[in-house]
Amino acid sequence: MITEGKNVELTSVTTQRYYIIIIDANGETKIEAEAGSTYSIKAAGRDGWDFTGWVVDNADVVRQLDLTKADNQAFVMPAGTDVTITATYKKQRTVCPLYPSHAPEDVDRVGRR
């Protein structure tokens, strides 16, 4: 209650919520993040796929990470923004020989009988 003739000091404290959004082989994970705190990322493994790098939408975070490294690494959350971090993958190629290494004797090197 505020009454006339009294000096009153009002203090408003607001906390803005920011998020780290990580998109990888496990899907999308969204966590609440506090500016100045340290967070770690590690790319999830994906059968039949090779990790190719991270795509990060924040220049401060980009400077802190090795974007080619899938192993655990840390960054400090910047102030005033959400950060989206996406793991990228490339499908592994399977190379099948035209003829098995122990082809029948009647097949020469170029596959003629």
Helix content: under 10%
Gyration radius, rounded:
27 Å
Query: Low-confidence spans: pLDDT under 50, at least 5 residues?
Result: none
Major beta sheet summary: 4 strands, mixed
Quickly count the helices: 1
Arithmetic mean of pLDDT? 82
Give the end-to-end Cα distance, rounded to a whole number of Å: 101 Å
Helix/strand class: mainly beta
The arrangement of helices and strands along the chain is: EEEEHEE
Shape: rod-shaped
Strand content: 25-35%
Strand order of the largest sheet: 2-1-6-4
- The number of distinct β-strands equals 6
Oligomerization category of the chains in this entry: single chain
What are the salient characteristics of this protein?
single chain, 113 residues, mainly beta, four-stranded mixed β-sheet, two-stranded antiparallel sheet, 1 helix
What does this structure look like?
The mean pLDDT is 82. The chain has one helix and six strands; from the N terminus they run ββββαββ. The protein is mainly beta. The strands form two sheets. Strands 2-1-6-4 form a four-stranded mixed β-sheet. Strands 3-5 form a two-stranded antiparallel ribbon.
Summarize the topology.
Elements: E1 18-24, E2 27-33, E3 38-41, E4 49-56, H1 59-64, E5 73-76, E6 83-91
Parallel strand pairs: 1-6
Antiparallel strand pairs: 1-2, 3-5, 4-6
How is this structure best summarized?
The chain is mainly beta. The protein has one helix at 59-64; strands at residues 18-24, 27-33, 38-41, 49-56, 73-76, 83-91.
